[in-house]
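At this stage, I put together one protein's amino acid sequence and its backbone structure tokens, which the following lines show:
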Amino acid sequence: MSNASHEARARLVADEPATLHEDVTVPSRAAPVAASRARQARAERMRVRVYQVLVALIGLTAWQVLVNVKVLDIFFFSRPTDVAARMWQWIATGFIWKHMAATLLEALLSFVTGSAAGVLIGFLLARHDVAARVFEPYIRIFNALPRVILAPIFILWFGLGAGSKIALGFTLVFFVVFFNTFQGIREVDPVILSNARMLQATERDLVRHVYLPSAVSWIMASLHVSIGFALVGAVVGEYMGAARGMGYVVAQAEGVFDTTGVFAGLIMTSLVVLVVDAVIQSFERRMLRWRPQ
């Protein structure tokens, strides 16, 4: 029996290093898997970018060919090469910078003020059910108003300066962010709230650790749409009446039947939207780093 017990102990001791070795090597096996997934994600993003560029090239080539073969009238549609030349001329001469700066400033102020007000009021009404029911019909009425009709009113109230454009952009941004924030707060899991309260969480703890993490994905989704609306508000306001801005440039080109100038102004505004949206996406990835993929 003594020899058998010694042999059993020896086998256990011999097995221990293997077990410990296996436990230690588990993370090392997980690291290549994570690296492989990261490479696959980068390759997928690169493939999507290539497809996006191909779609743009195909569309521009078709546009150029159809104009060259007289299927599309150059007076009404211009040509991509002419539009690109006009954009380069504006950039080289510095003509476009003051107009772009004016539009970006108006859009930025519209975006910041509208988003801040939408998040704050959406959060407050979502937490107070009686107040939400009282103000619900008024919010829906104001949201149903056509924004283009409001543009002349804002020009009368605030003049032809930046104020009227910021006000118009504010009305576009506010409701998008408000409804997303309101819904995001209302979608908080009641079980999570009950568990947090059982752990003696204060209202401040609930806001910081439960409500905001629940609503942040809703808010970030609304910001992608809102930045476009902020620029739309600024450009439409400038189109209605202004002394500078991208909307002013488009309106002046349209007034002299300069189709090339109209397309150049619209395309440059669209490129700015893409750049700003990329910045928001980068910010979103940082804010939602905690979320499992």
In short: Confidence is low (pLDDT under 50) at residues 12-26. The radius of gyration is 29 Å.
